[in-house]
Amino acid sequence: MQIRLAGVWKQCFKTLRIFLILWISVVVILAFIQRKLMYHPAPAVTLTVAQHPFVMELFPHATDVRIASTSGQTIRGWYLCQETETAGDRPLVLLFHGNAGNRAGRTQWYELLLKSGCDVLAIDYQGYGDSTGTPSQAAIEDDSLAAWDYVVQQLNCPPDNMFVMGISLGGAVAVHVTSVQSQANTAPAGLITVATFSSMVDVAAWWYPWLPVRTVLLDRYPSADRIVDVTCPMIQLHGDADQVVDQSFGRRLFEAAPDMAANGIMKRWVSLANVGHNNIVGAAGPEVLEELTVFLQSVAAAVEDR
Questions:
Q1: Which of 23-37, 115-129, 289-303 has the highest mean pLDDT?
Q2: Which CATH number fits domain 42-305: 3.90.1300.10, 3.40.50.1820, 3.90.650.10, 3.90.550.10?
Q3: Given this model, what pLDDT does residue 9 score?
Q4: What tens digit of pLDDT does each residue of 139-172 get?
Q5: How far apart are CA 253 and CA 213, in angstroms?
Q6: Could you tell me if 223 and 171 are in contact, meaning their C-beta atoms sit under 8 angstroms apart?
Q7: Is the model's pLDDT at 12 over the cut of 80?
Q8: Taking 60 as the threshold, does the pLDDT of residue 28 lie above it?
């Protein structure tokens, strides 16, 4: 009997050792390729706005933008403007897209922002579209600050006429830019985040609960820690049927933000009923447009009252 039990235990330890070796191997492989899992760029040799007639129809004076990042890469984008002579009369949205595709795939958002009365600067991060480089948190955050400088210095748009907006991963980028500028006392007019998260660590651990994500993840995007420094008005929109970034992570980010901006405007949370992660404009366009329009108007009213 003892010999049989010893054999059983020996087999159990052997099985456990094999399982442990396989698990460690999977962890090592996933850790090695984690950025390929996180970032899904759609590269393009050239991506001029003239190649997209619908965008040109929306923004007749749209132009291509070339920005030099501090890391030596070339970031390209589109400055979407209806009338150059009156550009300063309209707010400008610095828009950061999600982790997949490139700027050509965001036409629904451009149209919606146009209807809300805004011009747009949309960039592609390093490795996306026709921008050079390779995506990583450090690279993307460098790109975002270079884009901010371009808006202020080249487009002559003062921070108080600029809104920083991010969708999904872009929301983390937007929080980073706004946090940095708030600490420098040059906060934008407002922060708009859509379907974004408290941190990439939270989301990755939710997706892969059997992996030591909190130990091995390189690009962590700690937005909940950063948003505490934001001083401008903010609005956050998130679908309650989001299966990519669960709404709870958006709510966690929202709760970490200051309740009130420096100008007295309360932060706003908008839960979009029966809306997922990638169908926000298609499923709730009118509601999103109304929320953004009211937000923009409330900020403009606060500026006039000063």
A1: 115-129
A2: 3.40.50.1820
A3: 60
A4: 999 999 999 999 999 999 999 999 999 999 999 9
A5: 19
A6: yes
A7: no
A8: yes
Contacts of 207 (CB under 8 A, 6+ apart): none
SS3 of the chain: CHHHHHHHHHHHHHHHHHHHHHHHHHHHHHHHCHHHHHCEECECCCCCHHHCHHHHHHCCCCEEEEEECCCCCEEEEEEECCCHHHHHHCCEEEEECCCEECHHHCHHHHHHHHHCCCEEEEECCCCCECCCCCCCHHHHHHHHHHHHHHHHHCCCCCHHHEEEEEECHHHHHHHHHHHHHHHCCCCCCEEEEECCCCCHHHHHHHHCCCCCHHHHCCCCCCHHHHHHHCCCCEEEEEECCCCCCCHHHHHHHHHHCCCECCCCCECEEEEECCCCCCCHHHHHHHHHHHHHHHHHHHHHHHHHHC
Domains in the chain: boundaries: 1-32, 42-305
Which residues make beta-bridge pairs with 129?
A: 43
